[in-house]
Each structure stands twice: as C-alpha cells, then as structure tokens.
Amino acid sequence: MKIYRYNDYIISEDEKNKIYFVAYDNKFYKLSNAQFNEIFNKAEMILIKSIQDNFFYMVLMISIIVLTIWLYLKNCNYALINLNFIQATLILIVNIFIHELGHIFCLKFFYNKSKIKVGFKFVFIYPAFYVDTSYSYLLPKYKRIAVYLAGNFTNCLFVLGVMYLYPKLLPYCYLVISNLLINFIPIVKSDGYYAYITFRGKTNKGMGRIKEKMDDFIRGTIMFILLSMLSYISNC
Questions:
Q1: Does 91 lie in the same domain as 205?
Q2: Cα dist. 170→157, 226, 236 in Å?
Q3: Are 198 and 145 found together in one domain?
Q4: Looking at the structure, do residues 139 and 195 belong to the same domain, yes or no?
Q5: Are residues 34 and 134 in the same domain?
Q6: What's the structural domain count of the chain?
C-alpha cells in the first residue's frame, strides 16, 4: 500500500483491490479507481511512503486473545456480576486505559503521523471510551485489523500477567473478560466486528440514525444473551 500527498489530501492506494482511501480534514472517503480518476490527477500525487502488509500481527493477537479467554474460563467461573463488583470495576477502569493505549500505540507504530482522537459513547447499554482509529484506513488490510485488535490484545497481556504473577486477583477480572468478549466477538459493532468486516474486504456503512439504533439494540441484546448463557454454563 502506498501513501501519497495531494495538496491537503492524504491518499492511500490499495493497488491490489484498486481502491483509494482519501483523508481530508479528519474525514475519510473510499473511492473506486474510476471515481478517483475523475477527481484527482495522479501525475500530481507525491509519494510519502510505502507500507508493507504483514499478517503476523493479526495472527499473534488473535492467538493471544483466544488463549487468554480459554485460560480464564478454565481457571475461573465466569460471571456477569458478583459480589466483587467494586474491585472488578477498579480493575476494569485500569484496563480501559490499557485498552485505548493499545490502539494508540499500534496505530502510531504503523503510521506515526496518525492523529489521535478519544471519545465516549454507549454501544447498546455498554458504556465505552474509544479511540478514533480512522487513520487505520491508510494502512493495508492485516495491519489495519491489528490496530482494531490491539486494545483487546493489551487487555489480554494484563490478564495473563495477573494469572501468572498475582493469581489471587484473577476472580476480580471478570468484568475485563466481559469487556474482552464484547469487543472481540463480532456481534456488537466494536473492535472484533470492524476487524471481521475488514478481513472480508468490507467497510461499515451508515444506516441512518433510527436503523442504526435498532441494529445496535438487536446486536446488544444478542450479546447480552450470549454472556448470560456463558455465565450460567460456567457456574453450573
């Protein structure tokens, strides 16, 4: 993937799929080859850098995430909520910062000129801080997926550290595991969902405010049912 400058535009060219991502004023546009040629003059584009793709980062992160979930479920009874809620919430707050730093460091590692924006939103009933990873559109496929997974990956490193260095704290990590499952399983529109559609070569499309709220509600309900079932099975 090659990155160009064209006046005030930053342009990422995916030569394999013949598509372009155009960044302008912190907004991003996906253009086909034909659309791009109608708007821009390729002869005036200035090459900034070439970025080689590497699926190693994606495979490593998915492997660690799956391993962490398996080890936790093997060593602890997962619960949606229990009497350790206060301690678990404090650990979750620490992990929120760890999670977002994971996205930031990974994005900056692959493209250090990325601009970072942090915000807060609700995904269904789940409160969430987030890092705007839109600049990952300028990265090739597998590195972009790695940026989406980096937050979960750093949370897993924390849980694995607790598991082997401070195992007495492991029962307090159930909210971290809930957060990990919500983010990683591609149901709710979070990190795992965006990683999945990127793997399939798709991008998220706007649905309109009402349809988007309904979609979030349905996905959130399915996720809540799934976590409830896992909690029930784990404690049987």
A1: yes
A2: 13, 22, 19
A3: yes
A4: yes
A5: no
A6: 2
142 token code pair: 């597998």
Q: pLDDT (tens digit, 9 = 90+) per residue, 60-99?
A: 999 999 999 999 999 998 988 887 889 999 999 899 999 9
The Cα–Cα gap between 74 and 71 comes to 5
Dihedral sign, Cα of residue 145, residue 150, residue 155, residue 161: positive
- What is the span of the domain harbouring residue 46? 2-50
> Do 41 and 78 have their domain in common?
no
CA dihedral for 89, 95, 99, 105, sign (positive or negative): positive
| Per-residue pLDDT band at 118 (split at 50, 70, 90) | confident
CA-wise closest residue to 13 among 25, 26, 40: 40
SS3 21: strand
Please write the tens of the pLDDT for every residue from 12-46: 998 887 899 999 988 888 899 999 999 999 899 99
pTM: 0.91
